[in-house]
Amino acid sequence: VDRGNAGPDYQFGYGSVRIQRTIDFMRTGGFLEGQVFQGQAFTVPVTVVAGTAELKVTLAWDDYPGVPNSTRDLVNDLDLRVYSPSSQRYFPWTLDPHNPASLAVRTQEDHTNNIEQVVVANPAAGVWSIEVYGYDVPMVAQTFSLVAPAPLQVEVCGDGICSGPEDCYSCSQDC
User: Fold this and answer.
1) DSSP for residue 67
2) Over 160-172, what HEC string results?
């Protein structure tokens, strides 16, 4: 549940968790884990039905430990890219660390945080493309978690579909 200003802020972050809603959501299968390397994209189609009030997609990853006193916030930097059926791109929430009182905006990529969220009010019906992109991944592959409307379907082979990593890795065909 969002608290404070719309979107994340420096006082409440992304808000507070409602455990019953969270458990109910987990049962839908609307999350998965994956990994990307430098310059690689992991793409997931999400079908939005007509009349959907909101599309919310969240990306999170455990970053590698940084170097003390470094000016760089992230070691591995991933980007959450969300595209509508008409290929319009939607950006994640970002905050200005130099102006903590300013409101979060959705006008650019986030190269500061290891949690990114894209929210689209009244999204167009159709198949949306959700992409996790390895923007700057110097430390081997980066594992991530992606949360979106369920069920997430990942195409892993020419004619195969899986709904989670356990299915993806058992594909016997060359992808």
Assistant:
1) P
2) EEECCHHHHCCCC
**Separation of alpha carbons 69 and 50, rounded Å:** 49
Half-sphere exposure of 57 (CA within 13 A, CB side): 28
Burial class (CB in 10 A: 0-12, 13-18, 19+), 151: middle
pLDDT tens track for 52-64: 999 999 999 999 8
CA 102 to centroid of chain Cα atoms: 23
| C-alpha distances out from residue 99 to 23, 64, 90, 109, 164, Å | 35, 27, 23, 18, 40
Low-confidence ranges of the chain (pLDDT < 70): 150-175
Q: What are phi and psi of 24, to 5 degrees?
A: -60, -40
Contact 146, 31 (CB under 8 A): yes
pTM beyond 0.90: the answer is no
Q: Tokens 């019906």 map to which residue?
A: 125
Backbone angles phi, psi at 81, to 5 degrees: -120, 125
Tokens of 174: 């060359």
Secondary structure (3-state) at 152: coil
Residues, the chain, total? 175
The partner residues of 13 in beta bridges, in order of sequence, read: 9
